[in-house]
Each structure stands twice: as structure tokens, then as C-alpha cells.
Amino acid sequence: MAPRKGNLMTVRTDVKVLDATIRDGGLCNNFEFTDEFVTELYKTNVKSGVDYMEFGYRASKNLFDPKDFGKWKFCSEEDIRSIVGENVSDMKIAVMADVGRCDFKEDFIPKSESVIDMVRVACYIHQIPAAIEMIEHFHNLGYETTCNIMAISQANTEQIDAALEMLGAQSHVDVIYLVDSYGSLYPESAANLSKKYLEIGEKYGKAIGFHAHNNQNLAFANTIETLSYGVSYLDATASGMGRGSGNCAMELLLGFLKNPKYSLYSLLTFIEKYIVPLRESGVVWGYDIQYMLTGQLNRHPREAMAFTAEKRQDYCEFYKSLLDNF
Amino acid sequence: MAPRKGNLMTVRTDVKVLDATIRDGGLCNNFEFTDEFVTELYKTNVKSGVDYMEFGYRASKNLFDPKDFGKWKFCSEEDIRSIVGENVSDMKIAVMADVGRCDFKEDFIPKSESVIDMVRVACYIHQIPAAIEMIEHFHNLGYETTCNIMAISQANTEQIDAALEMLGAQSHVDVIYLVDSYGSLYPESAANLSKKYLEIGEKYGKAIGFHAHNNQNLAFANTIETLSYGVSYLDATASGMGRGSGNCAMELLLGFLKNPKYSLYSLLTFIEKYIVPLRESGVVWGYDIQYMLTGQLNRHPREAMAFTAEKRQDYCEFYKSLLDNF
Predict the structure, then answer these.
(1) B234 touches chain A (CB under 8 A)
(2) d(Cα B151, Cα B145) in Å, to the nearest integer?
(3) What pTM value is reported for the model?
(4) Chain B residue with Cα closest to A257
């Protein structure tokens, strides 16, 4: 194992914290946040020292009908500007573009005219060539780019090695993300995988990021474990809001980081004013046994999400049904 | 850092899982479990392959009035036998005895006449001599013994080194426990501390245990991280039931361990039949922001427990009050 970078007392100035509340959290409420919620989250992130705020997806309006989703599924320039104005702050703005679900050639203007700073390209491991095409397009438009390779726990070592080498050698991507979509990684396995990413990062001058899911209550643990070996782009969301079991909680991460630029006060106020009522209104996310079981089995959480939606609590029957359909 | 022991695929036959639901969970409901709950948990633990079940404290009836507590605060032989009979199973029975809160010379019969197998002696680091006196007494009566040194995150390195050396050289204790009472350890710091314990354990032939609290949602992560370096006695509770933010959840731990003797089925059934209704009846435990804050600040959770009891959600004011009273 490579040595750890820094220690539990010191500041790592290479660390960048990205708030993905609207994007991953939008998967819990169909992106139907109030403007007040998004505006206050934006102000909170600026005050808390967050480095990037992801507003949502820029999804294809040919594939997805805007009538069926909140506006953060599409993240138009106008909608972002209605919240951030010219974004006079030290925080950068990101959106996500999924391979195969985005009209990337039509729907992005040059960075010089856009309020967006970074485009995060999400793909599965067999879509790396398509991801590279998109990354190069966004890079040529002037954006910072990331490649978020999802569901990495189901890829094999040869695939991962090939994907990382392609991204390193054949793309201008700035950040390569390790994404634990199924929440099945343990700190030890997340650290081992991150080491592989970090080697490619060092070879080709790319930063490495980590995006966690909390199926086994390990989102924060895996985030700080990969951080300790050199991962520097860290995704988190307010109170872990995100699909299924959710993500790494921003309050845990900001409380851990030693850089005095990060502050908890504003976030705690945001949580009591906006997250608590959102939960009380019936929006559901977070660790629960059904997500633990899909995480332990390294599976997509879709069955657990259905179990949650049906308000079932017959965990043993659910477990047996998962094992029957392995 | 010492090498890890075993890996994520293999069985470690030295591992012993201890269920502390009645003991640490009893701190959430004044030890007032129904006999049905305790009986079903006992049966569940036997079926799940759990190695030890801790029934509660054997507290002094001179210091604590039995009228004020459920019976598992005192764990009489008769009360344990009413649940387990002669305990015809592979699982052993443990109770906890606190230094200074236990009439240990009067209240324990010889092991040969007792249904109890192990006595766990809990102390703070300045009470090691008193703990050793108790350990030797219990050892001479024929019991297995542990020493659970609490609040270790507030002890300094010299104290820890001296305490471990005393326990190793001057006692017959079988297991020395690293106890993260305030939930303030990170996987990296828990691993570093466990290495120190493991060195003493190797020198004097003692096993090492870990008892986690979930203030920063790291109870499970810290448990498996210390496990990976050689810690072998692992405390957990059903759904993490325990004081404040609770403990390592048994279902996470059993799902992680690879030894086929451990099984999740019975535990999942127990959770849906007994833990879900217990929570619905108003017994409260588990990760929440107030516990995160005391964990981040390495403090006793008493203020967070009061905040919880008052059903407050003004996290920012609470945080400021903690910082004002540092």
C-alpha cells in the first residue's frame, strides 16, 4: 500500500469538496426543489468553503420530457443564473452529463459565455470511448471536465486498467472519479482501487475523485480513507441526500477536514431550516437494511428502492428474494 | 503500519463476535426489555453464530436501587437462567462489571456454579489498578475476563502505554478492549491505536477487542479496520442499539464476515419483529448531527443526549454552545 498523504492534523491544499445535493439528491424528489432551497444551498456552500456545487444534469430534452421532471434535470444556463447571477464567488459551478442521455453537441455553449465551470461526464466502463468523445468536446469548449466511471465494483481489473489508461493517454480530462454506485466497497477495497487510479493520475497529470454511496454506512469512511492515500476531489451532499442510501454527508466531511476555509455553521443552519422539513415532507433517503443488503451483494439498489417505496419492513423475505435472483 | 491479517475474502477463525444489545442498548431504555425480547434475541444470536452475548451489568444494589432499573442492570444468575436455562449452545454468556459500581467480592459465585462464562471489567484509564484487582478476582473464580478501557480518545500516549503494560504484565486478563466511547476515532486513528494494543497482546498472549460508537457514522468502519490489523473480539448490537448514536450494527458485521458460521437470516427476522416495534414505541438511538458534533469534538455525548431528549433540532445553536464550553 502506498503511504498516506498528509495526516489527521494537517491541511491538504489539493482537496476540493464538491456538493452534489441537487444532482444526486434530485434523484430522490424528481429534481423538484424550490428556488428558495437551491438559493439557500448555494449561499450555504459559498459560506462553508465548498469548492464546487453541482446543480444537476443537463439531460436531453429529446429523451426526457421537461414536463416530467424538475428543472435541475436539465440545468439551463438561465435557470442556473437565476440562482447564482454571475456567480461572484470562489465556488465553481458544475453540471453532470450522462453518456447516451445528453445532446452534448447542441446543448452546451462555450465556457466563455457560460456560468458553468465544470462538466462531469458519467459513464459505465464500456462507454469510455463515448465518454472521451464528450470530454474532448467539453474541453475544447473551455470547460474543466471529469469522468465519473460508475458501478466500478462490477468491473474487472483488466477493464479498469484499460479504461484508466485510455482516459489518461487519450483525453484531456482533468479529474477521474472512482464511483461506488452500489455502496459495496469497504475502506480497504476503496483504498486499493484508489491507489490504481492515483497511479494513472500521477502518470498523466490527472486528479482523482471519489463518489460514495452509503449502503453499508461506509460513505464517509470510504471517502476519508481514499482521501488519505491522495484522492483530492470529494463528493458530498447535505445530510447525505442522494439516491437510495444516499451519499457522504457534507457535515461529516467538513467536520473532518482541517483547512480553516471549511466551516460547519452555515451548513448546520441550512440543515435545520431546509433538510429537516424536506424529510418531514416525505422525501426519503439514507442508510437502511434493504440498502445494506444490496450493498453487501454488490447489486444495483433498484430492488431496495422498490422495497422502500412500498414501505415494506420484511427484511428477511427481501433478503431471500435477492438471493433467489442472484 | 503492520500488515493486515487475512483479507476481504478469507475466514479469520480467531474472530469472536459479541452481542452487547441488552447491555449497551439497555442504556437507551433503562434496561426495561421484555422477557420475550431477550429470549428471542438469545435464540437469534445462537442461530446467527454469535460467539458471546452480554446480558447487562452486574451493578451494585447498594449503589443502584433495583426499583429504578430493569433487571438487566443487575443480571442475577436466576434472571439469566430464566432466559437461557443451562445455555446448551456454543454461545457464551457475558456480563459487565464497572469499576466502582459493582460489589464484586460479594456478588459473583464461582464459575463452576454460574451460567456466566465471561466478566467484562469496564474502567477509565486511571482505574487500571482497581480493574486489575477485579480481573484477578474473576479469574480466580474461573471466569474469562476482559478489560474495557473506556474513553480512550481522551487518554494520552504515555497513559495508554502504561495501562497496557500493567494489564499485560500484572493481570490474567484474556482480552483487552479498545473502546471508542465518544465515537471520535477515525479508521486511521483507530487502526494506529489498535496496533499499539496488538503489540502488547502479542507480547503477553492477550487477545484484543474493539467497541465502537457511531457518532461519526464510523462504528462499522472502525470495527472492520481494526479487525483487519488483527483485533479479534468485535462488539456489535442489533441495529446498532446503544447509548446515544449507538454501536456497530450486528447486521453490518455479520454481512461482512466470511465465516459461514455467521448468518443474517435470524437477525433480519428479529429486527423486523422486535427492533422496528421498539423504535416505534419511542426508544431512540442512532447517528444524528448532535452526536456527530460531540464526536468531532472528542467529548462525552451527555449534551447531545439532552438535546435529543428535548427533541431539539437547532443544530447550529447546539454547536455554538459546545464550542463555548470547550
Answers:
(1) no
(2) 19
(3) 0.97
(4) B296
